[in-house]
Specification:
Elements (H helix, E strand, L loop, with lengths): L7 H4 L10 H5 L17 H14 L14 H8 L15 H17 L2 H14 L1 H16 L2 H10 L61 H5 L3 H4 L1
Helix pairs in contact: 3-5, 3-6, 4-7, 6-7
Length: 230
């Protein structure tokens, strides 16, 4: 069966090539643990838009905090690639383009009521799908990585009593130790074919199937035990 291949430019990430080792293929795709050292700065209007939009994507209530209450803007600021640098990590959002999209929302979004804000976001999803998906993903990752949200899940959801936030939102890539692929060639295993499996008689002499080391018949299997007959 043939496999599909695409030019690296079309994949949107020139750090991943066909000659890369399996472990290396994932490294460029994961975000830096903890985000960028230097957080990008938003204007007051941009902060207000981010908080309002995040609250529309994940409404709080019923024991759960609103995204704007758990520092969602600070989380987003850590994972936006600063201006002048190439976006190499998920969600591949650059500062200049991201802020430009925020400015398009501006005061009109803030002056709209909650229902209208939802409609505006639906329109943005259609008109600027890349920006919308970047923002939406950051909101989800940021919100569900907050200790306050983990606590709310533990306290308010029956199925979330034992939920733990770690290792979210980064997955397990940072805790998997490097492996030596040459070790796979040293692994040897064996198996027994079904038709070669031998019956082992573990029954006592007074039990069905004991004589001759033959398995009991289906009728003997269905007979009640001595205790059941009593």
């Amino acid at each position: 069966m043939s496999s599909l291949s695409f030019p690296e430019e079309e994949l949107g990430n020139t750090n991943v090539g066909p000659t890369k080792e399996p472990q290396e293929q994932f490294a460029p795709l994961k975000p830096r643990l903890g985000g960028f050292v230097k957080l990008i700065e938003f204007t007051e209007v941009q902060v207000a838009v981010l908080n309002a939009a995040a609250d529309r994507i994940i409404p709080g209530g019923e024991g759960f905090p609103w995204p704007s209450e758990v520092g969602i803007v600070r989380f987003i600021a850590r994972y936006i690639t600063p201006s002048g640098e190439e976006p190499k990590w998920f969600p591949f959002a650059g500062e200049d383009n991201f802020k430009a999209e925020l400015d398009k929302l501006g005061g009109d979004f803030l002056q709209a009521d909650a229902a209208m804000q939802v409609e505006i976001l639906k329109r943005i999803e259609q008109e600027s799908p890349t920006f919308f998906s970047q923002f939406r993903d950051l909101v989800y990752y940021g919100y569900y990585s907050r200790p306050e949200v983990t606590k709310a899940i533990n306290e308010n959801l029956e199925a979330g009593r034992d939920y733990r936030s770690s290792p979210q939102p980064y997955g397990y890539l940072d805790v998997i130790e490097p492996w030596d692929e040459s070790l796979f060639s040293q692994v040897k295993g064996s198996y027994i074919r079904t038709e070669d499996v031998k019956y082992v008689n573990v029954r006592t002499p007074d039990q069905p199937g004991a004589a001759g080391g033959k398995p009991p018949s289906s009728e003997e299997y269905s007979k009640p035990s001595c205790n059941e007959e009593k």
